[in-house]
């Protein structure tokens, strides 16, 4: 049977997980009576842990908001999840401009863990290999990220100072719909209040963000991630490509994701089964065309090139080149 000190620490761990815990719930989890729970709470208060008593039908005990507990109480699984998350986030670019925060957080977790758990986790991290090399990412400012996240949650306008890819600086008022992490970068999508149009901004190019008075309504059925991806597909590039491809949405998306191309289902020709014989119009923009012939070949679906003619020539060249390779002994 656990000693009282062990139960007090278990109580602390339960409260640390967040929310208000009723006396009955805590008593059940600890295997004690309600009055014993109250005595354990008094022990925590004597240790300067700010446990608050909540009155009412759903009352009980909780920790004061914002309190940082001195002992970091993590199970083996929790510690592994946190450390692997820090490693993966650093390699994927999902960090902020405070580059050292990831390393110092990992070090703090290791320092407070029991030695046997720390050794096992260090062994795993030392033996862990990745198939992709870590990239160099432009990361956002922590204050900017948190300010915009708060504006998204409370639907408050936010003023931003933005520098575009050409180095032009501007100040905008944004109705931010959501924050999206994509390919190692952070984006915010929303309505530019000055021009009344939806825009997507890279968070690392935002120098300052300030919440403004007022509020706004988020459009119904909004999907911030789809807005960001479709924005990539519609970006201004040198070539505008239009195709008709015979296949399903799933088949085409396997090679041309939403960040690259937009799809429109075409009306079926008389006598065709739309499920098995459907054609889709595919539109995309690209700075170069030399990568598209191989993608179309990998789809292995019938297609028609509507524009540009240059792409048709590149596809024919690839087909001839592959045929000549196949004929070689």
Summary keywords:
5-stranded antiparallel β-sheet; 12 helices; 329 residues; alpha+beta; 11 strands; 22% strand; 4-stranded antiparallel β-sheet
Shape: elongated
Helix content: 40-55%
Tally of DSSP helical segments: 12
Strand pairing plus helix content: what structural class? alpha+beta
- Overall pLDDT score: 82
Low-confidence segments: none
Largest sheet: 5 strands, antiparallel
How many runs of DSSP E, i.e. beta strands? 11
Strands in their spatial order, largest beta sheet: 6-5-4-3-7
Intertermini distance: 78 Å
Strand content is 15-25%
Question: Cα-atom Rg, whole angstroms?
Answer: 28 Å
How do the SSEs run, as a string of H and E? HHHEEHHHHEEEEEHEHEHEHEH
Summarize the helices and strands and which ones pair or pack.
Elements lengths: L3 H13 L6 H8 L3 H13 L4 E4 L5 E4 L12 H17 L7 H13 L2 H13 L14 H13 L3 E6 L5 E14 L2 E8 L4 E6 L3 E6 L12 H10 L5 E8 L2 H5 L7 E5 L8 H4 L1 E8 L5 H8 L3 E5 L1 H19 L2
Antiparallel strand pairs: 1-2, 3-4, 3-7, 4-5, 5-6, 8-10, 8-11, 9-10
Helix pairs in contact: 1-3, 2-3, 4-5, 11-12
Question: Short summary of the structure?
Answer:
This protein is α+β, with helices and mostly antiparallel strands and 329 residues long.
What can you see in these coordinates?
It is built from twelve helices and eleven strands. It has 329 residues and is α+β, with helices and mostly antiparallel strands. A five-stranded antiparallel sheet has the order 6-5-4-3-7. A four-stranded antiparallel sheet has the order 9-10-8-11. Strands 1-2 form a two-stranded antiparallel ribbon. A hairpin with a 5-residue loop joins strand 3 (158-163) and strand 4 (169-182). Helix 11 packs across helix 12 (309-327). The longest helix has 19 residues, at 309-327. It is elongated and about 80 Å long. The mean pLDDT is 82.
């Amino acid at each position: 049977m656990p000693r009282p000190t062990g139960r007090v620490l278990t109580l602390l761990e339960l409260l640390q997980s967040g929310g208000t815990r009723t006396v009955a719930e805590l008593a059940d989890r600890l295997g004690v009576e309600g009055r014993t729970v109250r005595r354990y709470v008094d022990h925590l208060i004597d240790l300067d842990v700010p446990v608050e008593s909540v009155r009412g039908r759903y009352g009980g005990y909780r920790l004061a908001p914002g309190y940082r507990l001195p002992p970091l109480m993590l199970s083996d699984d929790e510690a592994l999840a946190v450390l692997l998350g820090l490693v993966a986030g650093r390699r994927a670019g999902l960090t902020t401009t405070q580059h050292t925060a990831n390393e110092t957080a990992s070090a703090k977790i290791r320092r407070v863990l029991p030695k046997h758990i720390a050794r096992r986790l260090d062994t795993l991290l030392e033996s862990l290999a990745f198939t992709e090399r870590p990239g160099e990412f432009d990361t956002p400012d922590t204050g900017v990220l948190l300010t915009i996240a708060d504006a998204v949650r409370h639907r408050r306008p936010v003023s931003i100072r933005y520098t575009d890819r050409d180095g032009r600086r501007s100040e905008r008022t944004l109705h931010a719909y959501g924050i999206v992490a994509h390919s190692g970068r952070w984006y915010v999508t929303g309505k530019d209040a000055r021009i009344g149009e939806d825009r997507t901004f890279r968070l690392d190019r935002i120098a300052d963000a300030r919440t403004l008075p007022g509020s706004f309504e988020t459009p119904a059925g909004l999907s911030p991630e789809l807005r960001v991806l479709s924005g990539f597909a519609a970006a201004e590039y040198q070539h505008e490509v239009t195709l008709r491809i015979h296949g399903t949405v799933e088949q085409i998306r396997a090679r041309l994701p939403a960040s690259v191309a937009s799809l429109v289902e075409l009306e079926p020709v008389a006598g065709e089964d739309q499920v098995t014989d459907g054609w889709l119009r595919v539109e995309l923009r690209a700075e170069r065309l030399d990568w598209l012939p191989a993608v179309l070949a990998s789809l292995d679906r019938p297609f028609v090139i509507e524009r540009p003619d240059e792409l048709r020539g590149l596809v024919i060249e690839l087909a001839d080149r592959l045929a000549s390779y196949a004929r070689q002994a």
